[in-house]
Design goal:
The chain is an alpha/beta fold. The protein is about 35% helix and about 25% strand. Strand 4 (about 85-90), helix 4 and strand 5 (about 110-115) form a beta-alpha-beta unit. Helix 1 (about 15-25) packs parallel to helix 6 and helix 3 runs parallel beside helix 4. Bound molecules: glycinamide ribonucleotide. Glycinamide ribonucleotide binds near residues 18, 113, 149 and 178. Glycinamide ribonucleotide binds near residues 14, 17, 91, 113 and 178.
Length: about 210
C-alpha cells in the first residue's frame, strides 16, 4: 500500500548541505516526507542547483520585487501554499522571517541552528562559541517563532570544542550532527510525533 508522503518546502540561502541531507533522506522509499519545493532569496544559491539535480522544483524569489519584508514573506507564503506543503524547513535561510510567515506556519516550520540554543543565537554561532570559550556547543532543530532562533526545541546534539578548533573545523564537526538531526526531526514531524506544549516539544511514542 502506498501512503501519501508529507510535502515539505525548504527555504535556503546558500550552500544547501542541510537541504542535501534532507534530499538524501527523502530518497529512501520508507521516508515519510518528500521535498515539494526549494525556495531561495538568492538567485545563485547552490541550494537551488542541488534541488534541480534532484528534480525538485527550485524557485528564486527576488527581494527587489517586493516593497518590504512583510510583502516578501507574503509572497513566500503564497508560493508554499500553492504547493500545499505541510511543513517548511529553514535550512541556512538567512533572512529574518516576519509575522506574516509565522502566522501562516507556526507549528509547521522548523529551523536548524549551529549551536546548543539558547546559547549563541543569530549569525556566526560557531565563532561566538569559540570567542566565548565554550567547551561544548552543538546543533539544534527547533520550531520557528517570531524571534531569532528562539522557538520550541525539537532535537539537539552536543559537539565538544577542541583546543585547536578554528571556526572552520568546529563548523564542519557541527555540520555532521546537523545532517543527522534535521532528517530525524522531519521524520518525527511527518509521523505526527511532535506536540508543542508551551516552550516544550513532547516527542510521542510511535503509534
Ligand atoms: C548551517 O550550519 C545552519 O545551521 C546555519 O547555516 C548553515 C547553512 O549551511 N544556519 C544558521 O546559522 C541560522 N541561524 P547549509 O546551507 O550548507 O545547510
Amino acid at each position: 500500500m502506498s501512503v501519501e508522503r508529507l510535502a515539505v518546502g525548504v527555504l535556503a540561502s546558500g550552500r544547501g548541505s542541510n537541504l542535501q541531507a534532507l534530499l538524501d533522506a527523502c530518497a529512501a522509499p520508507d521516508f515519510p516526507a518528500r521535498i515539494a519545493v526549494v525556495i531561495s532569496d538568492r538567485e545563485r544559491a547552490a541550494a537551488l542547483d542541488r534541488a534541480r539535480s534532484a528534480r525538485v522544483e527550485a524557485v528564486w524569489l527576488d527581494p527587489k520585487d517586493f516593497a518590504d519584508r512583510e510583502s516578501f514573506d507574503r509572497g513566500l507564503v503564497r508560493e508554499l501554499e500553492k504547493r500545499q506543503v505541510g511543513l517548511v524547513c529553514q535550512a541556512g535561510y538567512m533572512r529574518i522571517l516576519s509575522a506574516a510567515y509565522i502566522r501562516a506556519f507556526f507549528g509547521r516550520a522548523l529551523n536548524i541552528h549551529p549551536s546548543l540554543l539558547p546559547a549563541f543565537p543569530g549569525l556566526h554561532a560557531q565563532r561566538q562559541a569559540l570567542e566565548h570559550g565554550a567547551k561544548v556547543t552543538g546543533a539544534t532543530v527547533h520550531f520557528a517563532d517570531e524571534g531569532v532562533d528562539t522557538g520550541p526545541i525539537v532535537l539537539q546534539a552536543a559537539v565538544p570544542v577542541e583546543p585547536n578548533d578554528t571556526e572552520e573545523t568546529l563548523s564542519a564537526r557541527i555540520l555532521v550532527e546537523e545532517h543527522r538531526l534535521y532528517p530525524a526531526a522531519v521524520r518525527l514531524f511527518a509521523e505526527g510525533r511532535l506536540e508543542i506544549v508551551g516552550r516544550r516539544v513532547i516527542i510521542k511514542e510511535p503509534r
